[in-house]
Amino acid sequence: MSGLDRNQAPKTRQMAANRTALVASLDVGTSKIACMIARLRPCAPNEALRGRTHAVELIGYSQIQSRGVKSGAVVDMGEAEQSVRQAVGLAERMAKVRVESVLLSVSAGRLQGQLIEASADIKGGAVSASDMARVTSTGMRHATPPGRTVLHALPVSYSLDGVKGIRDPKGMVASQFGVDMNVITADATVARNLMLVVERCHLNVEAMAAAPYVAGLSVLTDDETDLGAAVVEMGAGTTTIATYSGGRIVHASGFAVGGQHITMDIARGLGCCIADAERIKTLYGTVLTGGSDAREMMNVPTAGDNDRDYPQAVSRATIANIVRQRAEEIFEMIRDRLADSPFAAEPRARVVLSGGASQLTGLAELGSQILGRSVRVARPLGFGRLPVEAKSASFAVPSGLLVYPQFAHLEHVEPRHTRQLKTGTDGGGYFGKVGRWLREGF
């Protein structure tokens, strides 16, 4: 079985609050691969969004068509490796630095988050850091079935002798100590193959993170995190969800339906090729059907090899109906997932859509109708000097990965001797490289 089975995926250490660092993020998706390189500069608390200690200055980025990936999982190692090399190379040239390690997002592998409780007797009377690590580690292992790997183990609150809601129990006295934690897991094989592709490009995987979790770090306002929000990351091949409450992530899930399915529906429905269907979706994709759309016709090339085939005339309403049917199905699946999460108990909590597929016209309004909640389309918040094309919802995940190291301290990290993760011969492993993101000094 892979080295990630029932183990924790690579984790980064917390950033020093007073240090400048260079970080690189890699989002390997079904239709596109994005790489972003940024300088993280320490900033005063009043200058940053809550929880952030550093300002993120983007110095290089790229976005290219993805190859060798289906529904967020690697299906062709060689093609995926070429795509990653190309994406990282373009971003490196723009930033004029050489990347050594990357933060990597995971959107496939049936993401799942569950809240679990673990407790243990305290021998010494006062709760120590090792007690906290021991109980959290035990809880995390129990929550990880065979064939799964842990992406995040986030303690939500602690309890002492049955008294819940304790924020920091260190040094407090009790005979029994417990932790409520959110454990987010993915299929170990999917995570391992994604890691292997990156390692074949001679890059270290500094940390792996669930796509909807890091999207939330990029796009949610403080109020949304506190009052409750669900981030729905709508990719080409997957739709993943992270729900937040009381300032913390409390649930995660996902399914393998996304924007590419809309493209395929258009291709089938109109009898055109996939490239034309994608172009039609991008230019005319809407879930809104207005009065004039039924009359407004457009020419669509047919998918035959015969040059004499005449393009067919199709009304915009026909296209909108095809798009709307699949979008409704996706929102109904989202509604089912949200009903199974703690989010269901928060009627005023809103839904925030991110990812490339969230940019279809009218999607927020349709989502609001089906989910019965306020819905908005996301954009990355609190970033200096983002180019126009990177300000969109489709960059929520790679930009969120750049913020992620500032939140690493919230997670439980297994001690390094229990983590046989490295496949190469490099004895330093992941922790030898922490902080050494890039070869170039700055």
From TrEMBL:
Gene Ontology terms describing biological process: cell division
Predominant place of localization: membrane
Domain called SHS2: residue spans: 23-219
Matches recorded under InterPro entries: ATPase_NBD, Cell_div_FtsA, FtsA/MreB, SHS2_FtsA
Keywords of this entry: Cell cycle, Cell division, Cell membrane, Membrane
Keyword field contains Chloroplast: no
Record's subcellular location: Cell membrane
Membrane topology according to the record: Peripheral membrane protein
Keyword flag Transport: no
Role of this protein: Cell division protein that is involved in the assembly of the Z ring. May serve as a membrane anchor for the Z ring.
Family: Belongs to the FtsA/MreB family.
NCBIfam families with a match to the protein in the record: ftsA
Quaternary structure and interacting proteins, as annotated: Self-interacts. Interacts with FtsZ.
Protein name, entry field: Cell division protein FtsA
Organism: Tardiphaga alba
